[in-house]
Amino acid sequence: MKALRRFTVRAHLPERLAALGPLSTNLRWSWHPATQELFGLLDEELWRQVQFDPVRMLGEVDPARLDELAEDVAFLARLDAAAADLDDYLSRPRWYQNQQAKGVSLDGGIAYFSMEFGVSEVLPNYSGGLGILAGDHLKAASDLGLPLIGVGLLYRSGYFRQSLTADGWQAEHYPPHDPQGLPLRLLTESGPQSSDGAPVLVHVAIPGGRVLRARVWIAQVGRVPLLLLDSDIAENDAEMRGVTDRLYGGDQDHRIKQEILAGIGGVRAVRAYTHAYGLPDPAVFHMNEGHAGFLGIERIRELVTTGGLDFDEALATVRAGTVFTTHTPVPAGIDRFPADLVRHYFGGDNAANESSLLPGLTIDRILGLGRESDPSVFNMAHMGLRLGQRANGVSKLHGIVSREMFQPLWQGFDAEEVPIGSVTNGVHAPTWAAPEWIDLATRILGPELVEEARGWERLQDLSAEELWSTRNVLRGKLVEEVRRRVRASWIERGATSAELGWTDEVFDPNVLTVGFARRVPTYKRLTLMLRDPQRLRALLLDERRPVQLVVAGKSHPADDGGKALIQQVVRFADAADVRHRITFLPDYDMSMARYLYWGCDVWLNNPLRPLEACGTSGMKSALNGGLNLSIRDGWWDEMFDGENGWAIPTADGVVDEARRDDLEASALYELLERAVLPRFYDRADGLPVRWVEMVRHTLQNLGPKVLASRMVRDYAVQYYAPAAESARTVAAENFAGARELAAFRRRVEAAWPSVAVLQVDGAGLPDTPEIGANLVLRARIRLGELSVSDVTVQAVIGKAGPDEELTDIVTVPMTHSASDESGELFVADLALPLSGSVGYTVRVLPHHRLLVDPSELGLVTVPNP
Length: 865
Ligand SMILES: *Cc1c(COP(=O)(O)O)cnc(C)c1O
Known about the structure:
Belongs to the glycogen phosphorylase family. With 865 residues, the chain is an alpha/beta fold.
């Protein structure tokens, strides 16, 4: 008989072992090896069986064993040390507390919204890079002492688990997770004061007078709480219960309900949390990708219904404190809904009446936020950009691509001027560096710096022997793990143990090991390595200098194209002559990824440039001394320095994709044959001296740059602190700034059509001007209803192309010199900054002290040609 439902009952801990409770539920254990070892001591065999999950461990360990340990002096000493260490971690002043002492303030802190969070494999609430990044963001924020709250959904089945059929096709499974068996606690109205307060239920109105309710789980990620909304409760009808069933499953209607719950319900959950815990309201709301964009309209609703602001004033307030991060350079990857679907949920009988989803807001204003050129479409990224005064991409290259992609929202501005910056992603070192590296780093740096991931570059001080032996140990661990997983996969595919003797010999701990693991959208080109199967086979089977290749990745369940690519790799790797050198491991997740990053000598990445926004797996490999072999895309474009790995030349501009794949695959084989393999196998007394030097250089040069702590500090300094400051400024004195900014915006938008550049004269140049020569520009401007203080007038100078298009522009503010009946006169006296073919023009922009960027409102006037 099968159970209808399953739940977990935790053991009653003996009094003396009570500290195991918080040690198991605070996910800080997941990046603290000493705490993991402590749980292993409860029962080594069981620790493996429960897959290194402390909560499951406490559920399954024999109570008699617990009684025994409660008397075990050595164990108690370790327990007390771990408990004291956690207390210290949670209370010691960190980077942010030091910044505060210097006057930097994030006020009430940051609410960080994401549709997925990959904190640990025991909380499988992620599908890939976006979620892992969000998890690393929380952990680094915790390490830095940043006041941050994570917000997302708890999916009953998370993302799917992947296995293979006998013929190599991806099969998907959705095992349900019982929240009671996860490291979660319920948010109750009484917060931390008492354990028996009523659970908070967040309500969101749905058309037809229905209500979507969700309880709120809290996962404790070190110092950072992660709020996860869960609609699978008896108070909901069947359809509403299913809203949080799966990550990225279901149709558009399902998806919009999830995003409404995450965004609108998410803000309500934050309010309930800060209320129950007596905390201040967050100053900054960070949308990690557009999915959570509805949070902005919920905040507008709050301000309209209780703050006495109108829509524009509320929008100005929300914009000041909102940061939007875009993650996709592929227009097709952007989250869009049919406008009618948005109208259905936010308009009609769910429109601006008292019991509606967002009372006080009209559907037209909401639709306007997600508007794009096609009026039947609602674009979540456009909404993110309209709701956030600050926005960024996730690598320098992705910043450039995003400015181009979203340029149509800033008509009249060049792509370089689009107000989207970049913060390059990073990875959480204590999570992704092997325990061996952590031990070595602790020896050199001490535990505190390791915990804050500072000083990582000092691993360069290790001797070549130590570096190389660590690499060997980690490759050895990977080989063991590959054998275990290959065997399990074949058994799942229907093989019997008797025919699997060969799996004991799969992979060789002394062979150069290349890893390729990531989700399988087309642009990542999983099968590029198979472009010339004979050439690959020769590399794998080379007698003197072989390569072994481990491949993993999930395809979206609806993407049969991706599954066919996986099948192609699996079929190739199944062949008896190569299966000891190449393998596809099913079910790529954090628990597998770790071994790959630790053990692979080379991390391969060959996306179609520039479609990889950042990529983070190569950073995790680099932290472990892995060398990247990658197309110059995402992070690698800015961090490759010629000595920390290899850049696969791209055939940018070759339009025929098949030909481009041929060219790039051939470049990849060539690099392996000529550069990578010789360097790895060239030995002096067994030591690959030049290889180890590259490992050393990677640790020293990339170590400090690829860190999530660097990323979160960048966000804190460049985005959160300025956003908190803007939010404070517009909200002061009963939102005087927001009212003023909204009134200004309304006024300039209305008056802008009458603004014109009437006349421009240049004077002062000699006949043959040289760089630095003096140029005096005079412009006559008509301002219509606006006054001089409402605008900035700029001289713009740049290189003039054949079609008079200006590039490499420099702008110089012009000063108001006089008024007459035909307009306002502005003048600039400047030194020519460029040589060659130079051109100039003049433009008018809105000016207000509360704007962050002159392009912000998308208004600009240039002379008529
Ligand atoms: C890091 C990571 C990813 C993301 O890797 P990319 O290089 O960004 O594709 C995906 N899945 C897992 C399990 C990871 O650890």
